[in-house]
TetR/AcrR family transcriptional regulator (Desulfonema ishimotonii), 804 residues
Amino acid sequence: MLDGFNPDIHKRLEAAVLEVFSQSDFHKASIRDVAKIAGVSFSTIYNHYGSKEGLLLAFVNIWLGKLTDRIIDHLQGIEDLKEKLRKVFWVQLDYYERYPGLGRILFMTLPMKTWMDDETFQQRKMIGLFLEVLRQGQEAGILNSNVRAGTLLDFISGFVQRTFTMWIVREEQESLTQQANLLFEMVWRALSNPECTCREK
Amino acid sequence: MLDGFNPDIHKRLEAAVLEVFSQSDFHKASIRDVAKIAGVSFSTIYNHYGSKEGLLLAFVNIWLGKLTDRIIDHLQGIEDLKEKLRKVFWVQLDYYERYPGLGRILFMTLPMKTWMDDETFQQRKMIGLFLEVLRQGQEAGILNSNVRAGTLLDFISGFVQRTFTMWIVREEQESLTQQANLLFEMVWRALSNPECTCREK
Amino acid sequence: MLDGFNPDIHKRLEAAVLEVFSQSDFHKASIRDVAKIAGVSFSTIYNHYGSKEGLLLAFVNIWLGKLTDRIIDHLQGIEDLKEKLRKVFWVQLDYYERYPGLGRILFMTLPMKTWMDDETFQQRKMIGLFLEVLRQGQEAGILNSNVRAGTLLDFISGFVQRTFTMWIVREEQESLTQQANLLFEMVWRALSNPECTCREK
Amino acid sequence: MLDGFNPDIHKRLEAAVLEVFSQSDFHKASIRDVAKIAGVSFSTIYNHYGSKEGLLLAFVNIWLGKLTDRIIDHLQGIEDLKEKLRKVFWVQLDYYERYPGLGRILFMTLPMKTWMDDETFQQRKMIGLFLEVLRQGQEAGILNSNVRAGTLLDFISGFVQRTFTMWIVREEQESLTQQANLLFEMVWRALSNPECTCREK
DNA sequence: CATGAATGAGGTTTCATTCAT
DNA sequence: GATGAATGAAACCTCATTCAT
């Protein structure tokens, strides 16, 4: 975010928000706990973020921004469409696996109604990035063009979300990234153009 | 469910719960509003459901039970695996489209942490039903057996959830069921055994 | 007040309000302290009185009502105007001396601006009572009729207030009622008709 | 006072304090508003006056000092006791009428408890001045000597305060000073020695 | 068993006041 | 010395939840 304030406080708040909101449902998480854990005055939080939701959304925005940056970074130098998508898929699983708190917040505690109304939700940059790639694939006849590019994206995102959620629910030990390739091949078959004669492997 | 009380009240409560919880985030929905709309004292709700979450979960359980019944009903007489899965996919979209309030609650307002800890979440009957079918498909060599049956289920469920959510977010007019077949073909390609020589259509 | 609730709680609250607000300036008195001392939940106070000011004003109203009743009671059977006024003067001093907390609140801590806008302030019953007596005196030629009856009342009230306040400030041990007659004679000379030939004693 | 700073700022602050504190109850008046209106940082106020109360008391002290000076000035050349008191009475009404903000603050918003503990409250100079005159009158047999001189002062002060307050409450248009003589005659009768054979006029 | 009063927790606001620059 | 960020306290407000009837 653009909250131009004490970077130290910002850091402590970030950790506290991650901790508190990833461990309880939104309505059970207390802003007073966040303040206490962060060692910040309760008022300071309000001065900066205005509300419980504002606080959470501000950090979610930051985190998603970082994920976007990471994806962009990793896409560098990859030409092949399939490899691009594989990378995108992998980076997401990898990111959420390394920051499960973020995954929990994103997929499990964020109050949806509010988030949807928030600018953050759109994550235009990331979405735009994805859609661009997917559209190119459709035009090139590689990806299924019977549906909108948005639908292809929904398939990937839905699966990422579900996979992460079940990973948490089932308390799986096995690494997400370890399964990434296996899972991606399935995704790829869903997305790729069924009429395409090009071989899958 | 087990709330042995006046079916009339039960009906009014059901409608009220659907209305209130589908329109706001969980923490913004007020049990007093539910009571008022249902024309019941909030204390009565407490006596029966114990808590706000208990109330919501009880009805979610009922609704999911009905969905399960509906799926079972619709599967009758279908032999072909693909058709079975297509049906399962379609019934879900159809159900959520007709009861968007339920979809909203299920995918957007339920406090996840609590739900996950609740028996309801497991939806053993429905899940068991699905897994059984999927496992048969894997054994028959029709479905991809490189991954657990649960993973196959994740594809379906994740896509249903995402599709519904984006349908709400984008305020799409177009019917969900109308797109069902097109979407299902993607799912099917993801699930089916890539080595299978059997034709797709 | 008409707060139809638990008389026990009401009693405890009354004592607590008297204690807390008579010992600090209004802005230093905490509603939480009142709640704690009264052994009542903080929320309960808000449910009933709406605000810190509402709480105080409600009790002030009650107390002044009792003072009024007491005055009315004491006036019974007195015919002579001077004796009536002497009584009115004495009852007030006596009342505030016995409930110095009330005097402190009334004359020293009540936020004036708010009080003045409040129905309480007008104390219509008591004021009406006084004015009636004073007007009769003016018409009978006993009291000075060069000024409005309200001005005559100002002499009495102003002197009562100031006398009480200085009694507190000077931490005088001497009883207020003991001085009442001496003081009243001053008031009487101020109010009585200077042209009147009637003897003072 | 002792605030050795920029006379311009001092002037702006004085006006701001008068405006803000005369229009709301003390607890509703905000020091930030004062700062804003005066065009000063609120911290600067703190550096100089230490607290909200300190700020108000400092100015009240200044204002009362000016009133005292004015009274002293006006008493010059008056020998007759009655005329002296008449003057004192008149100057006060005149001053508060011209600076109603001061009257409001003094009689209606100042937190009493704090003020009473403050050196300012004693207003030793003014009080001493009055008491001296009153005592002389008592010794000369002109004023009632059945009560302490302080009591005589209480009578005057109480009436001034009450008169001003009711003038505000009743939103009277009529000038205070215009009624001053009529009112003073009543005061004089209250104060003067009842045994004195000297004529009243 | 249904009800509403009372409670306690915590979100939201506003401030006086303190602290570090 | 002047400033604004940060703090702490407390008013205010809404609720979920408990309790006594």
About this structure: The CA atoms of residues 1 and 58 of chain A lie 6 Å apart. Chain A has a mean pLDDT of 89.
